[in-house]
Amino acid sequence: MKFFDSKEEVLDVQITKYGRHMLSQGRWKPTYYAFFDEGVMYDANYAGITTENKNSAESRIQEDTPYLTTQTNFTGREEYLFDGVGDIQDRMRLGVYEKLNVMPQSLGTTTLESTKTPAYKIRFLEGRIQNLENSLTGNVRTANTGSSTITNYSQQLLNIPQIDLDVEFKISTEEVGSTPKFEFDPALTQGRTYPDNYQVFVGPDQLLFIIEEENASFDHENFEIEIFEIKDETGNLGEPVLEQLSFIKPVQTVVDNKLIDERRAQIMAGRPNGQLPELDPTYVEYFFDVNVDSEIDQNIICRSLKKVKSKDLFNDIEVNCPDLRTVINTNIYGTDALSDNCPDY
């Protein structure tokens, strides 16, 4: 580790341990980059300096502040020692650790006309929030002293809200020929008829919510969804272990604005024979389904909106639900022509 020489060095690019592992397998394919301002102190008051004015802050940051060169190792050798035993899992956990704990807050963008920072607006149509925490620590380490438990945070507190939700399963026994009052899941309902001529129906509650990013540029894809499983085990220093789950890849015949063969698209999606891969606990779909935007059944959205709008909630949500439209009086004999000189067709 050394200091960055701003007079001779312009750009320093390094690959992390996990990046080198992906590169060795031909799987390192960077698709985006981000900018960070870690180590930059914009307001000197946080350092106890109250005499600095705004004009001198620029020279202090750009000229007088020394910066370290790029760091690539963020864990000790004893934490992730590739000794031939469980190396694949260790490398995956190392990648998750670097993603969640190493420079997690990149610089964002706001709309030009906005004077406020970007913010998330989340509204639930189905489901209920059980608990809310306003901050998250990158790495929590606990130690038992016998009489009490001491919690230490090896990373800084991050202002990332954490929302806890519970999904409850509904179970009902109905006589053959009858259906339950709730919407049951065919995959969870075996359809077995018991000697008393009854069947068991199982259906989970659905979580349906709208997420909007305000005061930021609206692009085609503003969000990325990542799902992690919190394991029962802990790391070498007592931190919780998270493993990222994979989604089933869709078959995409257009890659980098180029049309590719259907057979090649299936292979790239992990479907060499055109069949879905066998689900196991490493896939998200093994536990539940995640649908977004047009993937959600329109009837489910309209039914949920009807419930909340009946309580005078979320009236500003614009969804094309025919049963929720208001009656509009229109002159059916009117015309929408721009002028009287309409061409003959």
Question: Your description of this structure?
Answer:
The chain has a domain at 169-204. Helices cover 16% and strands 20% of the residues. The chain has 5 helices and 14 strands. The radius of gyration is 28 Å and the shape is globular. The termini are far apart. Mean pLDDT is 77; it is low at 325-340.
Number of strand segments: 14
Shape assignment = globular
Strand order of the largest sheet: 1-10
**Percentage of helical residues?**
10-25%
Secondary-structure map with pairings?
Elements (H helix, E strand, L loop, with lengths): L16 H8 L29 H11 L22 H15 L17 E8 L2 E5 L2 E2 L2 E5 L4 E5 L3 E2 L3 E4 L3 E7 L22 E7 L3 E7 L13 E7 L5 E5 L9 E2 L2 E2 L2 H7 L29 H13 L35
Antiparallel strand pairs: 1-10, 2-7, 3-6, 4-5, 8-9, 11-12, 13-14
Quick overview:
The protein is α+β, with helices and mostly antiparallel strands. The protein has a domain at 169-204. It is 16% helix and 20% strand.
Provide tags for this entry.
20% strand; 16% helix; 345 residues; alpha+beta; two-stranded antiparallel sheet; two-stranded antiparallel ribbon
